[in-house]
Specification:
This is Cleavage inducing molecular chaperone Jiv domain-containing protein. This protein is α+β, with helices and mostly antiparallel strands. It has one domain. The chain has three helices and ten strands, in the order H-E-E-E-E-E-E-E-E-H-E-H-E. It has a six-stranded antiparallel beta sheet with strand order 3-8-7-6-9-10. Strands 1-2 form a two-stranded antiparallel ribbon. Strand 6 and strand 7 form a beta hairpin. The protein is elongated.
């Protein structure tokens, strides 16, 4: 009887941990949207950061840096897919970019946009930035902010700043070929 109870407890704990792992994985693969106030899924791509972006003028792959946001075309230019390098991984963020009404030319040499992960409202829970060019928050920062809610209170979406700000990358003006009318 005791062995049966232990077995049942063990099974229940394993089910709980599996659900928790799935929930955390789903939470980590969503982006909070400042436009619709909802969440959009991001999909991890099997691309390395050192060869993440396709450049049509050079007909080759270029490296991406943390926070870069770029577009690539497929199906003879009929389909535009938006990508970003976050947490050292390349993600398809087309759903989020569409809701944000991001409009950039695909397959360009330069990366015209950068996603900023900084908090909009500074407070005691936010980490001070050395400069606006500092690297975006990492996974450890995410967990630190997520679990800084008061004890007994579930963390809310408001306690984790969304990667919702889009900043024009200060790398010079884009050329005529980089501009696209939307």
């Amino acid at each position: 009887r005791k062995r049966m109870a232990e077995s049942e407890l063990n099974r229940s704990v394993n089910e709980f941990l599996a659900r928790l792992q799935d929930d955390l994985k789903e939470a980590m693969n969503t982006m909070v949207c400042s436009r619709c106030k909802g969440k959009h899924r991001r999909f991890e791509m099997e691309r390395e950061p050192h060869s993440a972006r396709y450049c049509a003028p050079c007909s080759r792959l270029h490296p991406a840096t943390e926070g870069d946001l770029w577009a690539e075309s497929s199906l003879l230019g009929l389909k535009i897919t938006y990508f970003a390098l976050m947490d050292g991984k390349v993600y398809d963020i087309t759903e989020w970019a569409g809701c944000q009404r991001v409009c950039i030319s695909p397959d360009t040499h330069r990366v015209p946009y950068h996603i900023s992960f900084g908090s909009r409202t500074p407070g005691p829970a936010s980490r001070p930035r050395v400069s606006p060019d500092a690297p975006p928050a990492d996974l450890q920062d995410f967990f630190n902010r997520m679990f800084q809610a008061t004890p007994g209170q579930a963390p809310t979406a408001a306690s984790v700043p969304p990667p919702s700000r889009l900043a024009r990358r200060p790398r010079g003006r884009p050329s005529q070929s980089d501009a696209r009318k939307c």
